[in-house]
Amino acid sequence: MEYHQPVLASESIDALAIRPGGIYVDATFGGGGHSRLILEKLGAEGRLLGFDQDEDARANVPEDGRFAFVQHNFRFMKRFLRLHRITELDGMLADLGVSSHQLDVAERGFSYRFDAALDMRMSRQQEKTAATVTNTYTPEALQEVFSRYGEVRNARTLAQRITQEREHRPIETIGAFLAAVEPVVRGHRARYLSQVFQALRIEVNDEMGALQDFLEQALELLRPGGRLAVITYHSVEDRMVKNFLKAGNFEGRQEKDFYGNIQRPFKTITKKAITPSEEEVRQNPRARSAKLRVGEKVLPKEN
Fold it and tell me: Model pTM?
């Protein structure tokens, strides 16, 4: 089974402008597709570190002395780079999509296509699961999760339905969850459920908090001229990346120096987000919502 087909593969690797002797991070190693392409561009002195909190990803680690695998969330990147005595990077890549492997393995609980425990943890070391969110969050908190992370139009109705159903018995499985929410599904069923499951997954794994931590560390760790390439799949994370590349903060607020000059930590390499070709989407439908944004850290004198 294909673990994960790398999305926007050539576009993202080209965007990194890889130096043969540089040091790079693949922040979302997964099936290792992007990492293998980076290694092809690196010379003997180059180094690549791959981060992935999912223990299943370890099976894909290449036998290459230039590569080191770190089984942790990329939000802890700075800490583990320090352990490897790395203080500066030439580039980093993050593909924020859930892997095909995670979606296709029933017991991981990421997909509504299978009945299994309502899990959705990227790392099975953590305690919070989708069942935790479903059974313990207040109606208001559930509504916020579904509205913000899933853009579910009837988020309030959905949240109320879940809280009513869990009063009878805990909602512990995907089958039980689907049975509970079926009466309030609106529009195209598959699209609606995809949005709902996406929202739960993002909340369970604190994906937005992890992304914020990662971006702040990326700015600190990249050397001037180093590049950051991020592939997003959701409007909230895409806006976060766009604002950070533009302004160095998550609101898009333009900071000015004492003389009134706008401070820009990155030069935007992609004026508009790069999206997959029609051919790529045909071959890999899960790439259809992908957006690649790339920034190059500017020299202090360029601010």
Answer: 0.89
